[in-house]
Amino acid sequence: MDRLTSLTAFVRVVDSGGFSAAGRRLNMSTTMVSNHVQSLEDRLGARLLQRTTRKVSLTEVGKAYYDRCVQILADLEQADDIAGALQSTPRGTLRIYTATHIVQFVAPVVAQFLALYPDVKVDLTMGERTIDIIDEGFDIAVRLTPPPDSSLIVRSLATWRHVLCCSHDYIEKHGRPQQLAELAGRNCLRHVNYPYDEWRFMDRKGAPASVRVAGNLLTNSGETLRMTALQGGGISLAAGFLVHDDLEAGRLVRLLPEYRPIELSMNAVYPHRHHLSVKVRTFIDMLAHHSAEQQKLINPYS
Asked: What is the torsional sign of CA 158, 162, 163, 165?
């Protein structure tokens, strides 16, 4: 029998003075209440209650056992109350991992989250490596590419695209490419987490197009790609939000505008769908709302 139910039945028998009254309180038959108490006595190898036709009383062992059972059940009720409170208002520590170059979208949400919920703490780590979200104990990871672990839950926050671009210095030295196929012979600056072996685009008619590229820089740092492109080091397929200001200021030039890089998704990734803690659920909802407001910056093609 379930030990916790048996403990509850035993305490209710003592509190109510009999098996029938305990059964009414527990919505359980008198026989079932008796069976639960008998199960405890068999497990302990000791009699807990003296039973007569008129009343039920505790044995010496039963009295000591009853006192501990009352404390255990009170502790469990308090634990339930604490868990319920944690599920109604964000509390505790929220551990987040985000790519370095998208922290600009995550940071305002963190600040707002902390301002709204003073009982919460945030542990925010940014970097460029691929993490194991479960083994490393993160609640949420904010990613620009799908996670390798298909068991994780993925919530799309916003769509985004790369921008094919280079500097004026690069064009002066090497000329502007006129056809997509020309990229195969150019020095292309590549991100190690780009999800495909070739750069993929859609033409003006919506047909897919791709080109396999190579170059002297392969990195997991979006900022390194940006700086190298600014210095004329090659052609970059850069995250649009990362080079937005450079394009607006004319420091970088968009190439082959008739080809749109394929659309990707900025995602919140987390381990569990069921019984999601309120701190995680609330933060993800806030992040989704903020990302929707920033959609034009995240995806300059939207």
From this structure: positive
Residue 34 to residue 22: CA distance in whole angstroms = 10
How many helices and strands (H and E) does the chain possess? 10, 14
Cut 0.70: pTM above it: no
pLDDT tens readout for residues 184-233 = 999 999 999 888 999 999 999 999 999 999 999 999 888 999 999 999 99
What's the rounded Cα separation, in Å, for the pair 86 and 183?
54
Whichever domain contains 60, its CATH number is 1.10.10.10
**What is the tally of structural domains in the chain?**
3
User: What is d(CA 221, CA 218) in angstroms, rounded to the nearest whole number?
Assistant: 9
Task: Write out the DSSP string of 11-29.
Answer: HHHHHHTSHHHHHHHHT--
- Give 144 or 284, the one with higher predicted confidence: 284
pLDDT tens string 16-30 = 889 998 999 899 999
Where in the sequence is the domain holding 55, given as residue range(s)? 3-88
CB 31 within 8 A of CB 73: no
| Same domain flag for 243 and 195 | yes
Residues 183, 214: Cα–Cα separation, whole Å: 9
Residue 225 maps to which CATH number?
Answer: 3.40.190.290
The answer on 39 and 114 residing in a single domain is no
User: Are 237 and 277 found together in one domain?
Assistant: no
> Are 136 and 178 found together in one domain?
no
